[in-house]
Amino acid sequence: MRGPGGAARTTGRTPGGTAYTLHGTGDRPVVLVAGAGGAGRIWEHHQVPALTAAGRLVVTFDHGPEPPGAKAAGPQTAGAGADTWEAHTSEADGSETYGPLALAARTVELLTALDLPPCPLVGHSLGALAVQELLLTDAHRVSGALLAATRGRSDVLAEALTRAETAAARAGTRPPPEYEAFVRLVLNLSPRTLADEGAAAEWLDLFELAALTGESAADRPLPPLGHRPADFGRIPVPVLVVGFADDVLAPAPLGRELASAIPGARYTELADAGHLGFLERPGAFNTVLLDFLATLAPTDPGAPRVP
Predict the structure, then answer these.
(1) Active site residues
(2) Most CB atoms within 10 A, among 2, 10, 160, 250?
(3) To 10 degrees, the CA torsion angle through 189, 190, 194, 198?
């Protein structure tokens, strides 16, 4: 099967049921970890073609079912048990929602199932938070990490948005798709994109379709994070934090703050980009991504490879 850009494409499932796709035939794997609202295919528009053209074997995956052994718990508040993130169950409708620890466990299960050598991980938003957790427990599986639209702690606006959406869910109310699409548009995109009427109209159509089909084309806020600079100071692999200058959901200064807590980490910021900056400015993001991957030491030739 052929995927984006004509690259070879193979699909499968892990023993835990996570659906994944391998793009390309290179021997240098890189794993892309999507945010809360994005299935693995969100990377296929721009990042997969750029990476496969550079000779990379690209692994994308859907968040899928809860991984074996993941623990359900209540939403966490800042300062209480701030050294852990756990999955929780919505009190509004009983549906399960997952935090960074659960997604980190799913990512480890994927790396194990594919027998991947230590390789780069690229995470966006919830995906970046999950990679941060993985680096604290399974750094030996990772050769480097790019963390986009991330943070090391919560802030007043994030907590306010979480409370607002939690209250709406508990009330059993949901705005019309047109309204939800507009809110997502404003929360996730740069003012420069919104000023382009043609681009804004196209994005609005995508958000409306996502709202109508029950999918989310963007991340929803997570329970508050505790402030954990001491924990992040234990991350031993090369890290690049990418902030988006106009990001409302993960403000760039919080990304810079996280980078300063990780030994040797670098920080870069893309202008005219909101929370979905990797889709708004894919050329600039891909350049940063490929340049970072080029700085990482090659994987040990004796390490296990993807079958």
Answers:
(1) 125, 247, 275
(2) 250
(3) -80
Q: Are 8 and 2 in contact (CB under 8 A)?
A: yes
Tell me the three-class secondary structure of 114-170, residue by residue: CCCCCEEEEEECHHHHHHHHHHHHCHHHEEEEEEECCCCCCCHHHHHHHHHHHHHHH
Residue 102 CB partners (closer than 8 Å, separation 6+): 66, 67, 70, 86, 87
| Tens of pLDDT, residues 92-118 | 333 334 689 889 999 999 999 999 999
Quickly tell me which residue has 């391998």 as its tokens: 22
- Is residue 87 classed as helix, strand or coil in its secondary structure? strand
56-61/19-23 β-pairing: antiparallel
What's the burial of 244, exposed, middle or buried (CB within 10 Å: 0-12/13-18/19+)?
buried
Structure tokens at 210: 């996502």
Radius of gyration of the CA atoms of the chain, in A: 18
Q: What separation in angstroms does the CA of 260 have from each of 96, 146, 222, 254, 268?
A: 34, 14, 23, 10, 12
Listed in sequence order, the residues at least 6 apart from 173 whose beta carbon sits closer than 8 Å to its beta carbon are: none
pLDDT per residue over 45-87, tens digit each?
Answer: 999 999 999 999 999 999 865 444 444 332 222 222 222 233 3
The angle subtended at Cα 226 by Cα 222 and Cα 280, nearest 5°, is 45
User: Which secondary structure element, helix H or strand E, spans residue 252, and what is its range?
Assistant: helix 252-261
Place of tokens 């074997």: 57
Task: Residue 70: name the closest of 48, 47, 100, 44 by CA.
Answer: 100
Structure tokens at 18: 């996570």
- CA–CA gap between residue 36 and residue 55 (Å, rounded): 28
Per-residue tokens: 144: 């480097």
- Provide the residue type at 129 as one letter: L
Cα dihedral sign, 39-200-182-271: positive
Structure confidence by residue, pLDDT tens digits, 289-304 = 999 999 998 765 444 4
Closest CA to 126 of 160, 167, 85: 85
